[in-house]
Please model this.
Amino acid sequence: MPTDDRPEYDVVIVGAGLAGLYMLHRVRGLGLSVRVYEAGDGVGGTWYWNRYPGARCDVPSLEYSYSFDPQLEQEWEWSERYATQPEILRYIEHVADRYDLRRDITLGTRVESVIRDDEANRWAVTTDAGEEVWATFVITAAGCLSAPKPPEIGGLDSFAGTLVSTSAWPADGVDLAGKRVGVIGTGSSGIQSIPLIAEQAASLTVFQRTPNYSLPAHNAPLDPAVQRDWKARYREHRAAVLQARTGILVERGTRSALEVDPDERSARYAQCWDSGLFACIPASYTDIITDLDANETAAEFVRGRIREIVRDPDVAEALTPRGYPFGTKRICLDTGYYDTFNQEHVTLVDLRRTPLVAVTPEGVQTTEEEFGLDVLVLATGFDAVTGPLLRMDIRGRDGVHLRDAWAGGPHSYLGLQVAGFPNLFTITGPGSPSVVSNVVVSIEQHVDWIAECLRYLREHGVAAIEPDADAEAAWAQHVHDVAAATLYPQAPSWFVGANVPGKPRVFMPYLGGVPAYRQKCAEVVEAGYEGFVLHRPAVHA
Ligand code: N01
Model:
């Protein structure tokens, strides 16, 4: 525990990505004292770390941006439909400067522990730089996909070449020119980077364990006239986004995929394929994500496109996803991914057929062959949603560890707070739409909700807030029930923690949709923070 002469803040925020920066802005607006700790040496979170070639957002930039300040959205010009990582990082840096946020942010400093002092109703926060501070409120803005998953591959340390990870790509780049490059992992990060790595490398070997469904992004420069028009009606667009189930504007079908003529259905899927919107096919009919037969029509359409693009039938088959429903693992959006495998110097290694044995000093050994490599890229994913929280030592009332509270899987009221952890808020926590929505929309909503909650607590003399355990359990059950009514739990995805050995299988995000979730959060407030316990005047009283 820190000694009492340590600095004391009203609020400590963990992370200075899109969530942490906006939270800081709102907390400042309340006149509270605040400090932000950020592990990176710059702001940006996901967009600071994931600098791999081809990294870009897969939600249109005009929607994947802050809406809280109409002036900001008028000032900023996006150059492409889907902005690249450098452009998004510039945008986030611009926000940090424009609102003078940097003076309250400590960079290059990771929060290691957040331990509750019940007597004093405050949190002791310690960092890897040895800083120790007190905070009345702690708000995690640590991201959902920020804790890289251990790759679970033997021999990595022995590799004599250059080993890099997409999630910690060096800022000054990696020299791939003329090199024999290998990539392990074919999720969004692998699929975005593989075409660009192929452009530079002398040879590229892709080690694939599970094929993913990927759709073409059809990225392009943003037509200035389109951007001007959009900006002229920005409020209208933002309002429409809030009515969209995923927080992404997409046309939503009203019929079952099984009740339409197959030709009509294929034409609709083809339109979606051409639209460059990953949410289009899932939204095209009412039952793509709930009915296996309906889903199979979409899956088969995408498989057909892969067969059309990839010339070698064996390679096409190896790239073809089967065995889990379309859209139940996060759909990828690519630029030239499948076509990359038509290039002479690109090899696909199907690890289901010839499993990976180990990384060796020379390269990658499978059960069949050793592949010599100069550079090995890990695109092996993240310990999603709970990982960023549990890698901190968080201890709530009576010293209970969050990792013990969540030993059977995460439970949280609305993804905002956990019972037994008063005055700890989790932006985009488990049980909220977070990763199954346009995350900027969900971030802004959580930040606004938390800011208004802090205002309420102050104005009503409330010392601490935490969920009622029954309300939390009921919400966790609802999150589960909504997911169980879909095909999502049928896939071994990171949504259910299946990519991390030993992680409890719980569907973590809330699938009820952005509008329903927002309404629930608003109703809770209108009913006087229904489902929360408000401690007056002190939490231990
Ligand atoms: O990670 P992933 P990601 N041996 O978990 C494989 C967001 N995102 O970083 O499926 C061999 O999807 C693993 O194989 P398998 C987006 O939400 C967005 O790519 O476990 N292979 C899989 O192929 C996304 O969903 C964008 O069999 C191993 C891959 O590594 C999320 O982040 C861009 C392995 C991991 O795929 C995560 O994407 C990038 C092993 N031991 C990311 N371990 C945008 O477009 C793992 N794999 C905005």
Q: What stands out?
A: Residues 439-459 form the longest helix (21 residues). The CA atoms of residues 169 and 368 lie 30 Å apart.
